[in-house]
Specification:
By secondary structure, the chain is mainly alpha-helical. The protein is built from 5 helices and no strands.
């Protein structure tokens, strides 16, 4: 990690040195033109970044209004600098979330309902005196379950 950072810093220093050499070779008019172009590209990049930040906030607001709190990495997949594209991406993402929720819900509801023993008595297989403590406890728990189930 440190090596990568040192390499990036070394790369920045080399780029700055090359740029300084270019500027030294240029005439005053060329230097001014080069600086103007550089400033224009930096301005355009800043405007694009600002638009993306604003779109990210709008996308987050749209998703929260839809009942979903997105993570930052999810937002980065949806957001562009264009409002219409971002809105289309958010709507598609919301429909995907709804589809996944519905599939999960249907999967959970799938299957059969367990049969109820409500109203039936659990008859011990042998008299209480002949049972071990664990058997008697299990028998009592089964009867208590049936009693509580009858209330519903």
């Amino acid at each position: 990690m440190i090596k990568k950072r040192l390499e990036r810093e070394r790369q920045k220093a080399e780029n700055a040195k090359k740029e300084a050499e270019k500027l030294a070779e240029m005439s005053a008019k060329e230097r001014t033109e080069f600086e103007m172009n550089k400033l224009k590209s930096e301005k355009e990049q800043a405007e694009t970044d600002l638009a993306r930040y604003r779109m990210r906030d709008e996308a987050r607001k749209m998703l929260v209004d839809g009942g979903y709190t997105p993570a930052d990495d999810e937002l980065s997949m949806l957001v562009t600098s264009d409002a219409e594209t971002t809105q289309t991406n958010v709507k598609a993402y919301q429909s995907m979330i709804a589809r996944v929720k519905e599939q999960a819900r249907n999967e959970l509801l799938k299957g059969t309902t367990p049969k109820s023993n409500a109203g039936k008595e659990v008859k011990p297989s042998k008299p209480l005196e002949a049972m071990t403590y664990e058997e008697a406890q299990a028998q009592l728990e089964a009867q208590a379950y049936l009693i509580t189930e009858r209330k519903y």
